[in-house]
Amino acid sequence: MSVEFKDYYKLLGVSKTAGQEEISKAFKKLARKHHPDLNQNDPEAEKKFKEINEAYEVLKDPEKRKLYDSLGPNWQHGQNFQRPSGFEGGGYHFSGGGQQFDAGAFSDFFETLFGGAGGGGGRARFEQGGNFGGFGGGGGFGNFGSFGGAGGYAPGPSRGTDAHATLELTLEEAYRGGAKAITLQEQTIGPDGSPRLGTKTLSVNIPAGVREGGKIRLSGQGNPGRAGGKAGDLYLKVKILPHALFKLEEGNVILDLPLAPWEAALGAKVRVPTLDGAVEMNIPAGSSSGRKMRLAGKGLGGQGKRGDQLVRVMVQAPPSLTDEQRELWEKLAAVSDFSPRSF
Questions:
Q1: Is 194 exposed, middle or buried (0-12, 13-18, 19+ CB in 10 A)?
Q2: Per-residue pLDDT for the chain (343 aa), expressed as one digit of tens each?
Q3: Is 146 in contact with 185 (CB distance < 8 Å)?
Q4: How far apart are CA 264 and CA 256, in angstroms?
Q5: What distance lies between CA 181 and its chain's CA centroid?
Q6: Are strands 252-259 and 309-315 parallel, antiparallel or unpaired?
Q7: Which one of 34, 89, 197, 234 has the minimum C-beta count within 10 Å?
Q8: 198 phi/psi in degrees, rounded to 5
Q9: Domain identity same for 286 and 300
Q10: Distance between CA atoms of 180 and 204, rounded to whole angstroms?
Q11: Is there a single domain that holds both residue 212 and residue 261?
């Protein structure tokens, strides 16, 4: 298989010295422009949307960006020298796929360079200070005798302690919920006393509408018990990733809707993206910037407590005018008795 080098900086239209804020702004601008819901008649939009998400996935992450910058077009000669994910932190490490799409959302180049990051949806990672079976959470191995997690030897079986991790979800995943597979990379001690990295897959049932900070409990998937004791539980704290179009205010989803001045003045029917697919929305005549319209039940939250989507009008003026257009605007200004200012 031939894998082509991709210039992620060129895809986002930024320089190699661009800061995180500039990269983020460029990504949001392009993601809005090429979002499939807003370009349903353009078959290339989805492809372009995935490419800019792939580029942002790398350039927003300092470690991935450093690796990408160091290898560049010569990535094929250096990709085998990266450390396996999970060894740098000690204990356990969750890994999973692309943050915006399911399998297939990332190119062969991305998967080859970063180890198949498009393979399974969201990801979870242990928070700093997590401690599994006595293996210290600070990057080294702690007291091998304290497998019960209490710091010392205790006779008889004892239950393992609970573990806490962060589960990153896209806004779409949080809205829809459902089963999700995450891969757990488990650092253990082999028979020869050296550290080894194994993997296992866990299935997580995500409640539809789960909000930022919500917790999901996986029974028996925490720290192992001592001497045959029952394992503790694993608690996943939900972190919802930033979205190109939507913002969150508790359970409500906010969308800024650009309108032309004549659409705002005369009213219009426009296509509006939601987490449940695009819908047709009637814009009342005389709508000013800042006006909010509600799409009930299109936000986050459990059954009976689901938030709404708030569509906020943002009137935008044409950046330039032809002579004919300017003449028409001047005629409108001459006959209009409307004044936006009362002072």
A1: exposed
A2: 556 778 899 999 999 999 999 999 999 889 888 887 778 788 788 888 888 888 898 899 888 888 888 776 665 554 444 433 333 333 333 433 333 333 345 676 776 666 544 333 444 444 433 333 333 333 333 333 333 333 444 467 888 888 888 889 999 999 999 999 887 765 555 666 565 666 778 889 999 999 999 999 999 888 778 778 888 888 999 999 999 999 999 899 999 999 999 999 999 999 999 998 999 999 999 999 999 999 999 999 877 788 999 999 999 999 999 999 999 999 999 999 988 888 8
A3: no
A4: 14
A5: 16
A6: parallel
A7: 197
A8: -115, 165
A9: yes
A10: 5
A11: no
Q: Please list the alpha-helical segments (H only) found in the chain.
A: 8-12, 20-34, 45-59, 62-71, 108-114, 171-176, 261-266, 323-335
Distance in angstroms (rounded) separating the CA atoms of residues 287 and 258:
12
At 182, which amino acid appears?
I
Which of 34, 79, 24 shows the shortest CA–CA distance to 56?
Answer: 24
Residue type for position 230: K
- Looking at the structure, do residues 193 and 103 belong to the same domain, yes or no? yes
Which of these three, 243, 264, 289, is where a domain ends?
243
Q: In which order are the strands placed within the sheet that holds 309-315?
A: 246-249, 252-259, 309-315, 292-295
Distance CA 71, CA 317 (A): 44
Are 124 and 167 in contact by the 8 Å Cβ rule? The answer is yes
The residue type of 90 is: G
Distance from C-alpha of 286 to C-alpha of 313, rounded to nearest angstrom: 11
User: Would strands 178-189 and 195-206 be described as parallel, antiparallel, or unpaired?
Assistant: antiparallel
> Which residues form the domain of 165?
83-142+158-243
Give the chain's radius of gyration (CA, Å). Answer: 25
